[in-house]
Amino acid sequence: MPTVPTADEILDRSFRRAAKKMKEKLNKDRANEEFVRAVGAAIHDRLVYIIRGFPEFEKIPPFYREMAEILYGVDNIKQSLGAVGWAAKHTKMVGHEIAIQSRRSTETLVLRKRAVARLASMVHQIDKDLLFLNKVRNTLRKLPHVEDAFTVVIAGYPNVGKSSFIRLVSSATPEIASYPFTTKGVIVGLREQGRDRIQFVDTPGILDRPADERNPIERQALSAIMNVASVILFILDPSEHCGYPMEMQLRLLDEVKGMVNVPLVVVANKSDLRVQEGFRAMSTETKDGVNAVLEELLSHRPAWLASRKANESPADKKPEDSPAV
Fold first, then answer.
1. What single-letter DSSP state applies at residue 245?
2. Which site among 32, 105, 196, 321 is 20 to 30 Å from 42 CA-CA?
3. Cα–Cα distances in Å, from 84 out to 95, 122, 139?
4. Coil, strand or helix: which one is 84?
5. Cα(292)–Cα(299) distance, rounded to whole angstroms?
6. What digits encode the pLDDT tens for the residues 125-174?
7. Cα 179 from chain centre
8. Structural domains in the chain?
9. What are the distances in angstroms from CA 125 to CA 7, 83, 137, 234?
């Protein structure tokens, strides 16, 4: 996604481009006509380039579409892109119309100044849209690359050990700290398993409260759970050093269970501090039990592969998947 320039940057660049075209004409009137035509076309081309730099949100994977909705609102993005499209259409049209007028006029300098004023006014009308789209672009381009692979989504309350676990079992190096919401966005880590790649998605902590009261960070976590999970690892902290009682953590666990239809592995972390009866135990501090949890997560991969293969359409299958004739 290219950088979205401001209105003044678009105008400055377009005027410079038009000035070069103008110098190619020896006749002063034809030079003014060419300037008007060229500046309208240059603005149009730049605005169209901006629009084409954004994806069609209906065609992108659900994870990215949901993230765009959470962070900025897809309708808001489309509205700003529509405003840019309006300006692209009308700047080219105005430039063409005034260029035609110049061909029949002796006051070409006056028409050139009129064209510059009208074109600049139209571009400045969408300056807020351009600034908004550049903000969207700067955020979306930093989203982690989520592969089409077996994906373990790690969920739970803040500070229960999600980031510590993903750092132990994958390539990701999330910031680890002893305060809630250390993870400010979705972090992706990869683990090589023979020739295969296993993907781990570390989500921000989700608070146990109504959906309409959750903040954007929490909604990002839910989006990851809903859209990319092949299996979910839900981490509890029986020691309650995370700052949340087990009663609240278990309520959140029940909510997550009702939201997904993929396998869910529940583990009680911080076994070096306290062991919770009825749950698999591990400690990301001492690493006890971490490998056993990892093995249980990976045990769900064969079923995921079988389900994926069964759901493939004939067009998706590789030639070697087809029966021999």
1. -
2. 105
3. 16, 10, 19
4. helix
5. 11
6. 999 999 999 999 998 888 888 888 899 999 899 899 998 999 899 887 66
7. 26
8. 7-140 (1.20.120.1190), 151-311 (3.40.50.300)
9. 9, 9, 20, 49
